[in-house]
């Protein structure tokens, strides 16, 4: 067994469960009375949001609502949001919506506190200090942004989306009430939910990084004793309940399971980081304009197949297989079952099985491998060495949907 060591950085409060939104006034009040609500556009007209704002107003909060959240979060849209925020002089930000709205709110807090341009902060640990306190209320179950130190934006001057990662971006509180996810459309549920599964699996299979306690720690520290204890619990919840939540959107129990699995997965990957499915999805998402989770979910079986080349990783993938219900007698059997279970899950919830199906051409593969190899932080967290040739090999298998074993591992 590994020697226990590790780092967890989390919101000071995390509330989970139906009805937990009733804690909102309590946690916002810790920051102050002037609230900037950065709100997903779909939420504005919903009764649940109307009641939430009415409750806060009645409790003495002064709430200004900003909801011009643009798809993919172009950087200039965040400058507009920050200008609106400065006029209101908030004490605290309420972020409510899907991952895009939560990330927008994180970046507004950053811009209001430390100024732009956002490009100053691209990468890791470049945020100079604390930002406006933020209370996050997700309405999708998938990104985990409510507990993570990262926000992702589109910069028109960059080929792929870029991340800003800093412990200062972790919300001060997360309120995860599955009630907010009940109306999410089928495809949003599927792609957000499969991304949560990828977070859990990539966290559990991440490299264990050598941790030096002297000086500054990296934002993402590789798998550790805390995340090992939680990542498979996320897989156990998400595997069986995600197809139900997609097929029967009103199933409260399935929504609850998926939301909890997503939250656990966020806690895990917010500490460990993710790896190859994410490194490869960033350029694929930029080329095809397909949702983040569609890409990470599509890629995960091919990434795991490539990771079978390392015997130590087989054991971990086997544990994922067991969490997804495999009763095979050997590690090899359970690891194989892990991959086939994820393929089956993708098929049931509508995640395409190959890159050809989403419009990628074979000629694009070398360029995609090259762009993915620039995500050096993600590549370093992978459990296998992943030079460009390995990335290209994964892409070639994913291109045709080939999950046969490699002959020369
Ligand atoms: N910060 C992180 O840790 C992190 C992790 C993974 C992904 N991301 C980012 O999150 C984004 C994806 O987030 P997402 O999957 O939550 O999707 P999203 O926030 O982009 O939302 C997708 C669509 O669903 C709508 N929607 C959201 N919740 C709904 C609900 N309950 N009912 C009806 N409609 C609803 C939104 O208005 C939007 O139109 C990407 O930009 C990705 O890069 C961030
Ligand atoms: Fe993701």
What does this structure look like?
It is a single chain. It is built from 14 helices and nine strands. With 409 residues, the chain is an alpha/beta fold. The chain has two domains: 169 residues, 3-Layer(aba) Sandwich (Rossmann fold); 209 residues, Up-down Bundle (Dehydroquinate synthase-like, alpha domain), CATH 1.20.1090.10. Strands 1-9-6-4-2-3 form a six-stranded parallel β-sheet, with helices on both faces. Strand 2, helix 2 and strand 3 form a beta-alpha-beta unit. Bound molecules: nicotinamide-adenine-dinucleotide (NAD) and fe (ii) ion.
Q: Secondary-structure map with pairings?
A:
Blueprint (H helix, E strand, L loop, with lengths): L12 E4 L7 H6 L4 E6 L7 H12 L3 E5 L8 H14 L3 E6 L1 H16 L8 E2 L9 E5 L11 E4 L8 E4 L7 E4 L9 H19 L20 H23 L4 H21 L3 H13 L3 H16 L3 H13 L7 H19 L15 H9 L2 H6 L6 H13 L9
Parallel strand pairs: 1-9, 2-3, 2-4, 4-6, 5-8, 6-9
Antiparallel strand pairs: 7-8
Helix pairs in contact: 3-4, 5-6, 5-7, 5-9, 6-7, 6-11, 8-9, 8-12, 9-11, 9-14, 10-11, 12-14
Bound molecules: nicotinamide-adenine-dinucleotide (NAD) and fe (ii) ion.
Nicotinamide-adenine-dinucleotide binds next to helix 4, strand 7, helix 5 and helix 9.
């Amino acid at each position: 067994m590994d020697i226990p060591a590790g780092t967890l950085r989390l919101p000071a409060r995390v509330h989970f469960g139906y009805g937990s939104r009733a804690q909102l006034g309590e946690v916002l009040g810790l920051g102050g009375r002037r609230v900037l609500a950065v709100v997903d556009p779909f939420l504005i007209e919903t009764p649940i949001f109307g009641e939430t704002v009415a409750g806060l107003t009645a409790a003495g909060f002064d709430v200004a609502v900003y909801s011009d959240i643009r798809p993919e979060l172009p950087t200039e849209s965040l400058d507009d949001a920050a200008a609106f925020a400065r006029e209101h002089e908030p004490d605290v930000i309420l972020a409510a919506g899907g991952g895009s709205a939560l990330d927008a709110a994180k970046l507004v807090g950053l811009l209001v506190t430390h100024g732009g341009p956002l490009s100053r902060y691209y990468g890791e640990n470049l945020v100079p200090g604390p930002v406006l306190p933020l209370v996050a209320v997700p309405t999708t179950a998938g990104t985990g942004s409510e507990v993570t130190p990262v926000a992702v934006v589109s910069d028109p001057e960059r080929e792929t989306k870029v991340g800003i990662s800093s412990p200062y971006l972790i919300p001060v509180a997360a309120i995860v009430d599955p009630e907010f996810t009940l109306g999410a459309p089928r495809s949003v549920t599927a792609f957000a939910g499969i991304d949560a599964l990828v977070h859990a699996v990539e966290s559990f299979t991440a490299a264990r990084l050598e941790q030096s306690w002297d000086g500054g720690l990296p934002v993402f520290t590789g798998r550790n004793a805390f995340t090992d204890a939680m990542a498979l619990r996320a897989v156990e919840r998400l595997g069986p309940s995600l197809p139900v939540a997609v097929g029967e959107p009103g199933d409260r129990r399935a929504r609850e399971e998926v939301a909890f699995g997503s939250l656990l997965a966020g806690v895990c990957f917010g500490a460990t980081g993710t790896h190859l499915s994410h490194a490869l999805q960033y350029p694929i998402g930029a080329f095809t304009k397909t949702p983040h989770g569609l890409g990470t979910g599509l890629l995960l079986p091919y990434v795991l197949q490539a990771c079978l080349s390392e015997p130590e990783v087989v054991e971990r993938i086997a544990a994922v297989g067991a969490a997804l219900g495999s009763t095979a007698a050997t590690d090899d059997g359970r690891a194989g079952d892990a991959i086939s279970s994820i393929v089956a899950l993708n098929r049931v919830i509508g995640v395409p099985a190959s890159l050809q199906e989403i419009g990628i051409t074979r000629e694009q593969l070398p360029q995609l491998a090259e762009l993915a190899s620039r995500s050096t932080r993600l590549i370093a967290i992978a459990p296998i060495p992943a030079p460009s040739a390995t990335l290209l090999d994964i892409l070639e298998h994913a291109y045709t949907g080939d999950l046969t074993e490699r002959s020369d591992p």
